[in-house]
Recover the amino acids of this structure.
């Protein structure tokens, strides 16, 4: 059974800092991995989709990497802003299994 | 583009009542999913469907039922509401192929009292 773990559960950083969020999974036979953002009381917004054949994907200040052999994906956020404050979730698109998320707070 | 639409947005139920949460998508996606999200937690898969007429259990199916009579619609039924079913429910859809994203509705906040 696939297990998805996100560490840390919460993170607070000052504005402008670069940061890394982690997503680990136990079964490396994945199709792809998707990162989402969830604002309080809202639905999920897709940020990045990394296909199993890719090692990384970029969108603006966001960069996601995938290492299937070690069962890990990281989401790198450059030059963080208060507007980045949200919960970030990863999901494996084989069976749409989610991690518990990392709650990010960026302080002005 | 409507995407994935969930109704209602909010609902309060009494213990033992039943209700149906509606989900419809206009992207012709084969795969649809129902999740629940408890406070401070991630999403747990309740049921999913890979196409019209086909449904299967997820991680937490007890107390729920689904049907998929059309590609567009995937309603979730609660037969005897219990306080443990107080949660936010999300519906999602995807093409089901390897290289495509999943899209989510805005959620239904359900309180059982």
């Amino acid at each position: 059974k696939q297990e998805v773990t996100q560490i840390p559960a919460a993170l607070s950083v000052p504005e402008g800092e670069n940061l890394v969020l982690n997503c680990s999974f136990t079964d490396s036979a994945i199709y792809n991995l998707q990162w989402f953002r969830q604002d309080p009381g809202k639905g999920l917004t897709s940020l990045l989709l990394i296909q199993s054949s890719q090692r990384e994907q970029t969108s603006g200040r966001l960069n996601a990497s995938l290492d299937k052999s070690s069962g890990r994906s990281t989401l790198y956020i450059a030059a963080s802003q208060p507007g980045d404050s949200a919960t970030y979730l990863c999901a494996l698109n084989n069976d749409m299994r989610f991690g518990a998320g990392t709650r990010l707070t960026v302080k002005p | 583009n409507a995407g994935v639409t969930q109704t209602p947005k909010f609902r309060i139920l009494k213990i033992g009542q039943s209700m149906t949460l509606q989900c419809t998508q206009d992207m012709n996606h084969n795969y649809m999913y129902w999740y629940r999200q408890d406070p401070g937690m991630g999403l747990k898969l309740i049921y999913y469907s890979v196409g019209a007429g086909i449904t299967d259990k997820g991680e937490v199916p007890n107390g729920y039922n689904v049907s998929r009579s059309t590609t567009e619609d995937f309603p979730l039924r609660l037969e005897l509401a219990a306080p443990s079913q107080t949660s936010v429910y999300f519906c999602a859809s995807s093409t089901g192929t390897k290289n495509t994203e999943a899209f989510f509705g805005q959620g239904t906040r359900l309180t059982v009292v």
